[in-house]
Amino acid sequence: MPNKYAQLHQRCQSALDQLSLPRPFTVDALCQELSAQRRRPLHLHPLPEQAARNSICGMWLATKTDDHIFFEKRTSRVHQEHIVLHEIGHMLFDHRGTDLGHGEVSQVLFPDLNPQLVQQVLGRASYTNRQEEEAEMLASLLRIRASQSAGRAPHGVLGRLEAALGARAADER
Questions:
Q1: ω into residue 24 within 30 of 0, thus cis?
Q2: pLDDT tens digit sequence for 106-163
Q3: SS3 168
Q4: What residues have CB less than 8 Å from 97, skipping those under 6 apart?
Q5: Helix-strand-coil percent breakdown of the chain, rounded to 5?
Q6: Whole-prediction pTM value?
Q7: I need a labelling partner for 78 at 20 to 30 A (CA). Which of 30, 130, 158, 173 fits?
């Protein structure tokens, strides 16, 4: 298991090393940077309630021309940002999800979206497969790197945890 973790960490560090983080770091600024790099708009949306009822808390939807990231709106701002960073992890790794473009699921979740426009939908409901592990690790490492670039190097276990979560323990009390 330690070797699997080390390999996962290395894959995520390599992907992160290819990314230029905006200063000051915000999730919105990162999305603008990624949109420019990918030469396609990146839109953030609250997750449709039907998806949330199906235990999905985040989703990346790619059309032919745009990327859309959906996040659970009934949670804290910090958690929303982590969900967005997780979905960005899927984008950076170019993970492939279920092709819902012609299926009934996309019509239930996105009834106003033309099914022919949808290239792929990747929704998160668990952390049990390689793609989810990569996206989750990348989101945490991204948050830590952003914290370090802001001059707040994390110290000790609590410091690294705070950096990964994007909040200081005292902020939530």
A1: yes
A2: 566 666 766 666 555 555 544 558 888 999 999 999 999 988 876 655 567 767 666 6
A3: coil
A4: 60, 90, 120, 121, 122, 123
A5: 55, 15, 30
A6: 0.76
A7: 130
